[in-house]
């Protein structure tokens, strides 16, 4: 019985606990992060609730991820607004985390030059880098398995670490998707894809723990009662986020700060 | 009736003679990396390709140990899905099995990557849909390129491999 409870706790905590808010979304407070349970063997990696670190904390970050990360720029929610230099991405604005990640070229905002993430990191030496992956290629990644996913993800982490050993890397849970996501190019349902994301988040957490990185479990801050992305947080396509959703995410970052 | 049978037999003999004459023979001594590099040069901008490492075979080709040699080159341009795969089987008996693995890889790519490609570069989707596999002796080659580049790349490979 105890083994079952432990296994269930690990599963639940690795797939993102829901956070119920009773205040408005603009100033929501977060209940105790339910993923940080004593039974979760990777709990030490999860960033717990802290005082509000403020916008200065956010200003120290570089954000790297898929289109849902790139749109932090489009929504103008970071310093510099739509001209922010804090979001790194390629010309297409999205990244597929796969074996080609080390050679992928982003457009380095400070100069407009195309260069690898490693070269950009060596040049900028940011205080923090937040990595958010999981939606692109989710089906294939789950099929290939945990070893593959962690292998590819950690290869990117190693590139960054080698380029700038002083940069603090935080792995963020991939954002949830909503029921209305267009699944015409998939062979699964939106709910199943959301579960794939939870699975990949669990593997990302395990990777963070094994590499002594911190993990920002913001997934639950964006979900509704059905465990999927709240309808009011998506732009109509079921997965890209509104400015309001990004404000929720950023508030979660500030109140689950590094070193807390 | 006997005349018809004679004619049919004669026709069959001619077909057999000409088909054996038409069988090409191919070299087996060119490295897959060279073939992939030359195919990339013929088809698209040179110097814009990288190659996958051994883990790629492990996770995408059922960890096969069939190829005596292989090279898989992919473009580093982010809005472009160009990919060139060249494998050499150790003997002609392994070619069919190797080709089956390659076909399966492309089928998997289509089912797993089309959604992502469609989301950011929909004009690239046809390249994957129309990707082709050819065999040249013990070599198995797949190309994920547009039609014009594909024709040029295959032509280059044939030029390099034909005896």
Key attributes of the depicted protein:
heterodimer; A: 260 residues; five-stranded parallel beta sheet; 8 helices; globular; B: 163 residues
Task: Give structural notes.
The complex is a heterodimer of chains A (260) and B (163). Chain A is globular. Chain A contains eight helices and seven strands. The model of chain A is unreliable at 2-36 (pLDDT under 50). Chain A has helices at 2-14, 54-59, 67-74, 117-124, 138-144, 146-163, 190-210, 243-254, and strands at residues 61-65, 87-88, 105-107, 114-116, 128-132, 168-172, 214-216. Chain A is of the alpha/beta class and 260 residues long. In chain A, helix 4 (117-124) runs parallel beside helix 6, helix 5 packs across helix 7 (190-210) and helix 6 crosses helix 7. The two termini of chain A are 34 Å apart. Chain B has 163 residues and is an alpha+beta fold. Chain B contains six helices and five strands. Chain B has helices at residues 2-22, 32-43, 54-60, 95-120, 125-129, 147-161, and strands at 49-51, 69-75, 83-88, 132-136, 139-144. A five-stranded antiparallel β-sheet of chain B has the order 1-2-3-5-4, sandwiched between helices. In chain B, helix 2 crosses helix 6 (147-161). Chain A binds chain B through residues 67, 90-96, 99-100, 103-105, 136-137, 139-140, 143-144, 148, 151, 185-187, and chain B through 50, 52-53, 55-56, 59, 74, 76-79, 108, 111-116, 118-121.
Summarize the structure.
The complex is a heterodimer of chains A (260) and B (163). Chain A is of the alpha/beta class and 260 residues long.
Describe the sheet with the most strands of chain B: 5 strands, antiparallel
Write down the overall mean pLDDT of chain A. Answer: 88
The helix-strand sequence of chain B is HHEHEEHHEEH
Q: Quickly count the helices of chain A.
A: 8
* Oligomeric state of the chains in view: heterodimer
Radius of gyration of chain B (Å) = 19 Å
Low-confidence stretches of chain A: 2-36
Gap from first CA to last CA of chain B: 44 Å
Order of strands across the main sheet of chain A = 2-1-5-6-7
Helix content of chain A: 25-40%
**N- to C-terminal distance of chain A:** 34 Å
């Amino acid at each position: 019985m105890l083994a079952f409870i432990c296994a269930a706790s690990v599963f639940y905590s690795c797939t993102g606990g829901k956070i119920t808010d009773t205040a408005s979304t603009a100033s929501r407070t977060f209940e105790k992060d339910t993923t940080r349970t004593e039974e979760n063997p990777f709990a030490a990696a999860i960033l717990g609730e802290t005082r509000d670190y403020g916008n200065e904390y956010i200003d120290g970050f570089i954000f790297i991820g898929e289109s849902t990360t790139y749109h932090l720029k489009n929504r103008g929610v970071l310093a510099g607004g739509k001209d922010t230099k804090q979001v790194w991405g390629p010309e297409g604005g999205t990244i597929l985390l796969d074996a080609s990640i080390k050679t992928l070229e982003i457009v380095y905002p400070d100069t407009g030059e195309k260069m690898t993430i490693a070269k950009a990191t060596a040049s900028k030496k940011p205080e923090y880098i937040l990595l958010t992956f999981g939606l692109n290629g989710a089906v294939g990644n789950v099929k290939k398995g945990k070893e593959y996913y962690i292998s590819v993800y950690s290869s990117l982490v190693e590139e960054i670490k080698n380029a700038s050993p002083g940069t603090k890397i935080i792995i963020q849970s991939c954002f949830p998707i909503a029921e209305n996501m267009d699944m015409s190019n998939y062979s699964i349902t939106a709910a199943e894809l959301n579960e794939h994301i939870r699975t990949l988040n669990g593997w990302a957490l395990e990777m963070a723990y094994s590499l002594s990185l911190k993990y920002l479990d913001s997934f639950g801050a964006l979900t509704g009662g059905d465990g999927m992305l709240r309808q009011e947080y998506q732009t109509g396509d079921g997965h890209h986020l509104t400015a309001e959703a990004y404000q929720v995410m950023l508030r979660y970052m500030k109140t689950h700060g590094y070193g807390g | 009736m006997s005349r018809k049978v004679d004619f049919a037999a004669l026709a069959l003999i001619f077909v057999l003679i000409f088909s054996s004459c038409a069988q090409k023979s191919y070299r087996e001594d060119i490295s897959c990396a060279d073939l992939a590099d030359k195919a990339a040069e013929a088809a698209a901008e040179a110097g814009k390709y990288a190659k996958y490492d051994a883990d790629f075979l492990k996770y995408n080709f059922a960890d096969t140990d069939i190829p005596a040699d292989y090279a898989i080159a992919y473009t580093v341009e982010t809005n472009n899905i160009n990919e060139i795969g060249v494998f050499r089987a150790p003997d002609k008996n392994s070619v069919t099995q190797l080709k089956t693995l390659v076909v399966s890889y492309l089928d998997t790519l289509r089912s797993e990557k089309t959604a992502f490609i469609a989301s950011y570069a929909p004009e690239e989707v046809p390249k994957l849909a129309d990707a082709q596999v050819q065999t040249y002796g013990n070599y198995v080659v797949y190309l994920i390129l547009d039609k014009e580049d594909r024709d040029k790349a295959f032509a280059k490979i044939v030029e390099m491999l034909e005896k």
